[in-house]
Design goal:
The complex is a heterodimer of chains A (197) and B (168). Chain A has 197 residues and is of the alpha/beta class. Chain A has a single domain (36-174), classed as Glutaredoxin (3-Layer(aba) Sandwich), CATH 3.40.30.10. Chain A is 43% helix and 16% strand. Chain A is built from 7 helices and 7 strands. Chain A has a 5-stranded mixed sheet. In chain A, a hairpin with a 5-residue loop joins β6 (142-146) and β7 (152-157). The longest helix of chain A has 24 residues, at 2-25. Chain B is an all-alpha fold and 168 residues long. Chain B has 3 domains: 1-37; 52-120, Cytochrome C biogenesis protein (Helicase, Ruva Protein, domain 3, Orthogonal Bundle); 123-168. Chain B has 5 helices and no strands. Chain B has helices at 2-34, 52-64, 81-95, 100-111, 126-167. The two termini of chain B are 30 Å apart. At the A-B interface, α2 and α5 of A face α3 and α4 of B.
């Protein structure tokens, strides 16, 4: 009986330890990454084109195919880090990348793209961040995968890497249509594949 | 006689020190509870809204949301550029006539419930709201039992000493 009572504080301490460890493992950061936009329609937007003279950039560009929406800024260090990966994604040609140049200086942004290469199909500029906030962005870079139905499927916070592109994005997009979109032979090959199955 | 008075003075000064310490602790506790005084930093560059009601709604809202870049600061106090953008959006929504609830719903739909400093009182969050009062009740019960046990020990102790004094 005496032994049992003296064990009580120890049991309480053990319980507290379990609660704290669970709290640490389920840190709020992990909840943030699960953006509430996932599984919802991508927010609509129309932004002026970063390159003056070109037409506005809008969410209409996302309709009917997979797209990658990348929020970036020339002030952002991790954006510099992921830039080569974005160029690789462009070269792969699986999805167009729509850029949202957030909170940036136009001249800096254009110089950045001229110097490092331009991975974007279109870049809209969002100097006051209204569109970025509508997409639930709180840091750059953030990349959203939007499916052909216009639904946000995945969100990457922080720099894109070839590994993440492979495991989180391409895995969701599915296998490439044989021949690829850029090849002229693509329709023929895909019909052949379709009849084969 | 003089020794007695000295002893008396000493106890009095002890008591005074104890009182001062207690008062200082209480004051500190009250100050901490009230929170650090809100220093008006020139963080927010948005122009004041046209009506005092709107301005009040805007200020109430910016203090309710967490800046996700520096998590323990409110949007109103955060110098981060993401916070400035969120303030800009809230400013626009209030100007367009949105109610506090509408703005809250919008922000939660974009950033999730984590952006709220005060999580909503719904069943899903029952443990969050229920745990602190429950723990407090447990703590009070434990403290009460410990104090009771200690009093009993002291009483027994006193009895023993009296016995021993009598015996010697």
């Amino acid at each position: 009986m005496k032994l049992k009572r003296s064990l009580l504080p120890l049991a309480g301490f053990a319980l507290l330890l379990v609660v704290l460890i669970v709290g640490l493992v389920h840190s709020p950061e992990k909840d943030i990454i699960a953006s509430p936009l996932i599984g919802k329609a991508a927010p609509q937007f129309t932004l002026p084109n970063l390159f003056a003279g070109k037409g506005p950039v809008s969410s209409a560009a996302l309709a009917g195919h997979w797209s990658l929406v990348n929020v970036w800024g020339s002030w952002c260090v991790s954006c510099r880090e992921e830039h080569t990966t974005l160029l690789m994604i462009k070269q792969q040609g699986r999805v167009p990348i729509i850029g949202i140049d957030w909170n940036d200086d136009d001249a800096d942004a254009m110089q950045w793209l001229q110097r490092l290469g331009d991975p974007y199909q279109q870049v809209g500029k969002d100097p006051d961040g209204h569109v970025a906030v509508d997409w639930g962005v709180y840091g750059a870079p953030e990349s959203f995968l939007v499916n052909p139905q216009g639904m946000v499927v995945y969100k990457q916070i922080g720099a894109m890497t070839p590994q993440i592109w492979q495991s989180e994005f391409l895995a969701r997009i599915g296998p490439a249509a044989p021949g690829g979109a850029t090849s002229a032979a693509a329709p023929v090959v895909s019909t052949a594949a379709g009849s084969g199955t | 006689m003089s020794a007695g008075r000295r002893a008396h003075t000493r106890t009095a000064s002890h008591a005074r020190t104890a009182w001062a310490a207690a008062a200082a602790t209480a004051l500190l506790a009250v100050l901490l509870a009230l929170g650090t005084p809100r220093v008006a930093l020139a963080v927010d560059s948005n122009p004041p809204l046209p009506t005092p009601q709107m301005q009040q709604r805007y200020l109430a809202l910016t203090h309710q949301f967490r800046c996700l870049v520096c998590e323990d600061e409110s949007l109103a106090d955060s110098p981060a550029s993401a916070a400035a953008d969120m303030r800009g959006v809230i400013h626009t929504l209030v100007l367009e006539g949105d109610t506090q609830q509408q703005v809250r719903d919008y922000m939660v739909s974009r950033y999730g419930e984590f952006i709220l400093f005060r999580p909503p009182m719904v069943w899903r969050n029952a443990w969050l709201w229920g745990a602190p009062p429950a723990l407090m009740i447990v703590g009070i019960l434990v403290a009460w039992r410990v104090l009771k046990a200690r009093r009993r020990l002291i009483d027994e102790d006193d009895g023993l000493t009296t016995d021993e004094t009598l015996n010697s």
